[in-house]
Write a structure and sequence with these properties.
One of its GO terms (molecular function) is oxidoreductase activity. One of its GO terms (cellular component) is cytoplasm. Keywords: Oxidoreductase. By secondary structure, the chain is α/β, with parallel strands linked by helices. Helices cover about 40% and strands about 15% of the residues. Strands 3-4-5-8-9-10-11 form a 7-stranded parallel beta sheet, with helices on one face. A two-stranded antiparallel ribbon has the order 1-2. The two termini are about 30 Å apart. The mean pLDDT is about 95. NADP nicotinamide-adenine-dinucleotide phosphate binds next to α10.
Length: about 290
């Protein structure tokens, strides 16, 4: 598996997104564990999660617990694996989401995530989504405090605009390892953030890189050029899409979600697919 830089760590160029294993439509635990094991078997060393990936009010952290369990039962050396989690975006259990960016809340949420994930510190912690009721600097100040206290090893932000990336970068004294924003063939408006990450040397983790849980299967139908390039290479349109992400910048690391071992096994192959300049131009224009 080809690798990319994430802060002071080196991780697989393709990550695994944990959300489909814990929200609406989630599979049973055995299939989820098999999916995470399949990712590890394929050389995936970046797994994305969040405390909010759960269904009911009483199973906050469902996905973090699942990932910790799968890492323990895998049987191989997991020291190279980076588990990235997030805090500040919550689900009351009725399918809705809300934000809480208060510093005291974020610190308490990070401690709870650490307890679920185990170990001495969280590998990478993202502030999940800006809270309009709290100054951004205050929320990022909490992330800086968590870094300084050693509760988290690397800091990231998610759903951030360029001004917020620059602000976080400054508040963290340059220690901003990752920006996690939505980016896919259907959603390209994070291009300015992607470009800024390349300029500053920050990993850009594209979320919903295949268009999201409900749309990922239809990618080749909705974006015909991706299907055409896939046919030419004898791979799936999802693999072509992930290779297109990787070609966007050396700092991009897509984190495709999966709830089936087959999905992440297929996606992991994207790291080996090189697209020609002509193909990339066609996909960019699609
Ligand atoms: N920071 C944020 O605010 C935020 C928001 C949303 C998501 N995320 C993160 O980003 C991750 C990815 O986003 P996402 O899960 O919403 O959407 P996605 O990655 O665009 O799509 C996920 C779906 O793609 C399917 N899939 C994956 N690889 C495939 C392949 N090679 N061939 C066919 N289908 C394939 C999976 O199907 P199966 O389920 O059948 O395996 C899965 O349900 C999430 O899991 C989460 O970790 C972050």
């Amino acid at each position: 598996m080809k690798t990319r830089q994430l802060g002071d760590r080196t991780v697989s160029a393709i990550g695994l997104g944990g959300m489909p294993m814990s929200i609406e439509g989630r599979p049973d635990a055995a299939r989820s564990i098999a999916t995470i094991h399949a990712a590890l078997d394929a050389g995936v060393t970046l797994i994305d999660t969040a405390d909010a990936y759960h269904l009911h009010a009483d199973d906050v952290g469902h996905n973090e617990t699942l990932i910790a369990t799968a890492l323990r039962s895998w049987g191989g050396d997991t020291s190279a694996v980076v588990v990235a989690t997030k805090g500040g975006h919550l689900r009351p259990g009725d399918g809705t989401w809300y934000v809480d960016g208060r510093p005291e809340y974020l610190k308490q949420a990070a401690e709870a995530s650490l307890k679920r994930l185990g170990g001495d510190a969280i590998d990478l912690y993202h502030y999940h989504r800006p809270d309009p009721a709290v100054p951004y600097a205050d929320s990022i100040g909490a992330i800086r405090d968590l870094l300084d206290a050693g509760t988290i090893r690397l800091a990231g932000i998610s759903n951030a605009n360029p001004a917020q990336i620059r602000e976080a970068y400054d508040i963290l004294g340059g220690r901003l390892a990752s920006v996690q924003n939505q980016y896919s063939p259907a959603f390209r408006s994070s291009q300015p953030e992607l470009d800024l990450c390349a300029e500053l040397g920050i990993a850009f983790l594209s979320w919903s890189p295949l268009g999201g849980i409900k749309s990922a299967a239809d990618l080749g139908t909705r974006f015909a050029p991706f299907q055409r390039v896939a046919d030419a290479h004898g791979v799936s349109p999802q693999v072509v899409t992930l290779a297109w992400h990787l070609a966007a910048s050396p700092w991009v690391i897509p984190i495709p979600g999966a709830s089936r071992p087959e999905s992440i096994r297929d996606s992991a192959g994207a790291a080996e697919l090189t697209l020609s300049a002509e193909e990339l131009a066609t996909l960019d224009a699609a």
